[in-house]
TrEMBL record:
This is WD repeat domain phosphoinositide-interacting protein 2. It comes from Caenorhabditis japonica. Belongs to the WD repeat PROPPIN family. SMART domains: WD40. Gene3D superfamilies: YVTN repeat-like/Quinoprotein amine dehydrogenase. InterPro entries: PROPPIN, WD40/YVTN_repeat-like_dom_sf, WD40_repeat_dom_sf, WD40_rpt. One of its GO terms (molecular function) is phosphatidylinositol-5-phosphate binding. SUPFAM superfamilies: WD40 repeat-like (SSF50978). Keywords: Autophagy, Repeat, WD repeat.
Amino acid sequence: MSGTATEENPELINYIGFNQDAKIICVGHKEGYQFYKTSDILETSELTYEGESLTHLGLNNCLVVERLFSSALMVIISQKDPRVLHVYHFTSRNIICDHRFNKSVLTVRMNRDRIVVCLEDCIYIYSLKDMKMMHNIMETPMNKLGVLDLTSNPGNALIAFPGSTDTGSVHLFDAINLSSVNTFVAHEGTLACLKFNQEGTMIATASTKGTVIRVYSVPQGNRLFEFRRGVSRCVTIYSLSFSPDSKYLASSSNTETVHVFKLEKTEGDDAKPEASSESGGWLDTINKTFSAYMPTQVLQVGEFMSSERSFATAKLPGATRSNQVALIMHKNQQFVLTATSDGFVYTYRLDPEGGELDLIKQHRIGPYSDTCRSSPTLPGGGAASETSNQVVPNMDDPDDFPPMSHTSG
């Protein structure tokens, strides 16, 4: 199978990603959206999905599709107007509200408390309960890639985003208490990817160079692990993903190789404190951090000497325009799932011994898949299950979600 788009094999998927706990794959395409359960991918030979065409709402060409865990609440960014965020309840097929911005929305992240919207030069924070804007972080360093992540564990809402356009500094912001928490330098080069673990106690980072991946403690910013993805081949890191137990970290890129790293301390390994306090404002903190930053040559030698290589690798059939990786625990077994923009999801069993992983399943996904059919309960089908015991707002209650329109910026 060719991994690149051609005139005979166009890539029809605009967006692909996993939800907060990696139980759902979210697909956005030219007519609407689709959701696939990762448990079905592991267990069944023919996939079903939840999804629908949104052309009747004028929301064709979905550029961003994010779902709140396994509830019926989702957000959509359409190519029709990428400056508008649509909050949608897909069981009742109602648009709960729209939020309009002065620039295109690049990234959206949700948890059970907050919705965070990232533009290239500012970040907006909304309350999930009533969709009211709580705070806006203005004049952030230019972030054209929309690099941002939000913790998903209950009662916690830390945001991570680039703190500089010159170096790979990470800024942490508390979206519950609406205050800056910490800023630390993670890489010499600018950031390309950020990802929290499910407990919100660690964050994985990669720079635009893509050769070194690091893991830091949250919120302290102490370096815990450092991994070398490659020596001389610079790549674009598309995604990072922790396993549910935080014992492994996977990365995918614009190459055909998915890397899995083992988060295991070796004897003599000590955490390296690199955090700086936030007492004088985060911009001041960044300036102080720059002044103490190590010379480039020294840092490069240190990386080469101390970095661990990947514990395991999985080979995709080819490189694609984009892809997303997730580590899944299913029936006491770890699996690596990689969903690609050309409409496939590949499943590998993570061998405890590591090494080259075997491909055990391959499914076609996307709007024109021959093997997929819509669920007979389209589009809802009990989507509010699997929400644990957390209180999720009633999306059908007009007191919780009155129709509204909001212009930001």
